[in-house]
Structures are given as structure tokens and as C-alpha cells.
Amino acid sequence: MSPPFTSSLIAETARELGIELFLEPKFGYAGRVTYPSGSRRFFHLATMDCNGAAAARIASDKDYTSFFLKSLGYSVPEGEAFFSDQWCLINNTSNNLSAALDYATTIGYPVIVKPNARAQGNGVSLVEDRNFLEQALGELFYDNNIVLVQKVIHGRDYRAIVYKDSAPIFYERTPLSVVGDGNKTVRELLEAKLSHLKKGGRGVKIVPNDTRISNCLTRNYGLDLDSRPRSGQLLRLLDNANLSAGGDAVDLSTEVHQSLRNTAIQIARDAGLTFAGIDIMTKESVTGPISQYTVLEVNDHPGLEHYSAIGKDARNRVKALYRLIIEDME
């Protein structure tokens, strides 16, 4: 079994720098680097030993992250956290499933519903009515104690990968999609797309039978997985644009305006993070100054496997970034 992307890249970089690397042999998920000075640092998948524990913990909690960023004047999605029945009892709150349904009616449909503490787009759905929301919440509360209901934000979805004050990696994300050929079914097109991504080194975490895909097809196109879309018809199959869920990336690292680079660096700094992924949505062109944007989420351990797979330049940027992090961690 070959090590995961991050472990392999760190091993490659450590060899070039003459730094000793000890990798857990069973899965290769975790490792330790030992510097010539004798100091040691650790990593686990995309989590590097460079962020403070408390700041990283806050960043892993979407509700807390929005709360603290909003207190500093940042625009964040309008939303509220709701809790499983067990969590309501423990924390003496009435923000349960029923309250979430009432809240969604107050802010208006459609709404975004998502787990509070999961990454990679897991469990994120757009729902358009009370019945679908009740179903989505019931499924999420099965294995999540805290779920967010948020007002939909419109715009284009971008991610900035920030490390200290270095120039961020910056790319646009678009949701998993297929293009009809007039012959194949949606299921066949999707299976071919996922196979292509896997061959390109992207182990996406999505399957054709994901109910979010069926809901998206029905809601947006009146189709299902067995439908045969017309030739050239673009079908977006998910509401979230996470690359780990099969989304596509357009690299804008050399094109994004310097003011937005500075903004991303400042958001990471205000979140208390040295290394971070900053998710931003805006309707404006990012090649020039922007006046309005929303901070969707902050990630304290941004994965770069999927971005790296889009081309040689992207992989070189990722390797240079990890080299800088490894050099600085001593």
C-alpha cells in the first residue's frame, strides 16, 4: 500500500533537505521529521505541526469560526447551529430539529444544511422545503450532534491556501458535473467521470447513489440517474464545490489580485492560523479589487491532493509550500 499524497510529498521533500523522516508503516498516514538539530515535528495526513491547538480546534468548528470572524467585521453566512436531542439535554438548549425547521421558515428557503464539524463537503445539502429539510436533518443527526442551517450565499466559490505571508495558492472551485453526449445515462457519465478522476490520482469521496446527487438532478433538471441528457448539456450534480467530492479547480494563483491575496492572509491571521484554507464566495472578478465577499469556512488542515492533480504547475506550487513549511517547523 503506497503512502497518501501528503506523506509521499513530505518524504520526497525531506530527502531533498536531508531531514530524517519516520513514517508509520501500516497506512502511512502519520509521520515524524527529525531535524539535524535534534528537534522533532509531526504530521498526520494534511495536518502539519504548525498551527496552535486552540486555533485549530476553533477552525474545525464552523459555528465558532463564523462567530469569531463576524466579531471582527467579516461577512459570514447567516445561520444558526442546532443540536441532536441528546446534545440538547446535555447542554440545556431547545435548539433541536423542530427549532431548525422553524428557523428555516424564518430565513426563507432554500437553505444550506451541513454538519458543524466535518470537512470535504461531507453532508452538505441545499434543501428547498420543510419536508426535505426534515429528512436531511434526521440523516445528519444520526451521526452528528451539531448541524448548521444557513441562508444560501450566491457567487463564485474560491479557496486560498495561506501559509504565513507567502503568496497564497488560489483557485476557483466548481461542483461535480458531467456533460451529456445524447447517449449515455447520467449514471454512466458519472461513473466515467469518477473513474477518470481516480486514474488522475484523485480519490474522490462520492458515489453515484449519493442522495444529494439524485436530489440535485430532480430539483434542477427534472432528471434522474437513468436519464439520458442531451448532447452538450451540462449537469451540476452537487450544491457544494469541494474537490474531494469531485469538484473541478481552475488555478488562479498568478491571476488573483494582490488585495485579495492580502485579505486571505489577514483572515488566516485573524483566525490565529499559520497554515489555512480560506473559502471565499463573491460575485466580483478576483482579478481586480473586490468590495464584497463572504467567508464561507476556514480549514486548519487544507488538503492539496486534488489541487495538485490538475497539472505540473499546481504540483510544483504544493511542493514548494510543503518545503517552506517543513523548513520553518524546526
UniProtKB/TrEMBL annotation:
Domain ATP-grasp: residue ranges: 66-330
Coiled coil: none
Any one GO BP annotation for this protein: SOS response
Highest rank taxon of the organism: Bacteria
InterPro entries: ATP-grasp, ATP-grasp_RimK-type, ATP_grasp_subdomain_1, Dala_Dala_lig_C
GO cellular component: cytoplasm
GO terms for MF: ATP binding; D-alanine-D-alanine ligase activity; metal ion binding; ribosomal S6-glutamic acid ligase activity
SUPFAM superfamilies on file: Glutathione synthetase ATP-binding domain-like (SSF56059)
Transmembrane regions: none
Keywords annotated in UniProt: ATP-binding, Ligase, Nucleotide-binding
PANTHER family named among the record's database cross-references: BETA-CITRYLGLUTAMATE SYNTHASE B-RELATED, RIBOSOMAL PROTEIN S6 MODIFICATION PROTEIN
Name the record gives this protein: ATP-grasp domain-containing protein
Organism of provenance: Candidatus Vogelbacteria bacterium CG10_big_fil_rev_8_21_14_0_10_51_16
